[in-house]
Write a structure and sequence with these properties.
2 copies of one chain form a homodimer. Chain A is mostly helical. In chain A, 64% of the residues lie in helices and 3% in strands. Chain A starts with 13 loop residues before the first helix and ends with a helix. Chain A binds a DNA duplex through helix 4.
Amino acid sequence: MKHKAEGVDLETSLGYLLKEASNALRSAMDEVLRPLGMTVTHYSCLELLAQRPGLSNSELARGAFVTRQSMNVLLQSLERDGVVTRPAEAPVGKALPARLTARGRQSLEQATAAVRSVELRMLAGLSDDEQAVALRVLRSMVRSLRA
Amino acid sequence: MKHKAEGVDLETSLGYLLKEASNALRSAMDEVLRPLGMTVTHYSCLELLAQRPGLSNSELARGAFVTRQSMNVLLQSLERDGVVTRPAEAPVGKALPARLTARGRQSLEQATAAVRSVELRMLAGLSDDEQAVALRVLRSMVRSLRA
DNA sequence: CGGTCAGTGTCAGGAATCTGACACGCATCA
DNA sequence: TGATGCGTGTCAGATTCCTGACACTGACCG
């Protein structure tokens, strides 16, 4: 179909652009993670566990922006594949603290390299100043929206 | 569970923050659109049609970041509700140009008001300068990621 | 002590979305 | 003319993800 009537004011909307950028990032990450047999949520889970060992299923779910139920099925498969470990019984309450195995850390290493290349491409052509402003603006948006 | 070990470097990652902001925006929009019986995709479709009348199903799908199949089921329900119209036969090729009805414009008007309040809240506390930089940065990111 | 509340893990069930595939129309070019 | 490529609408199947609900634990407070 023909290209026509481009951009009335959608390209001027921060909201729309936010969605567009987020979508482009997700697509790009999916693309580089697929050869590794990973999804974005999959990778997010591993990255979260690497940075904060002992996170519970619910906490991982919030961090990866999915429901506890979805994260749970993911964790079960990760546990089955020997990538993460959870104790059989909760040390306190009902929360089961998850941890990466050696194999998990290795798996994450590959994924991190792939994702880093995407992030570098995304930030290409942006000055440190611009990145800093973008960081501040995004943080402010999140805070304001949650209010 | 207890609050602990906050922010190793997730909060410093533009990628994660992008996802977080996009998610917060979507949640906030969902919340104000639900009383109107609308979803975000629903609203996006109407907004797209208002700004660019005659868009085809596939074009709407790309604009709303869903598949043609998903957009088609939405369009069918919108057509059934008398919110949009499509000709019975394609004037050219196979693409059916969709248009808002009077009722559709009225429906959109309510939604726009609701969404505008969210966008205002999101941008609260941000200078025009910061918004301009954010706009430029996001555009650059999208362009780089698509390359 | 007894009550409520918040947070968690888990079990179905269902809704939304995507993947895969096919036929058709138009444009381009040999 | 015919052939290839691209975009589109549409059908069916499968997957993913979420909504709703239940039981349990620990913390707080009357």
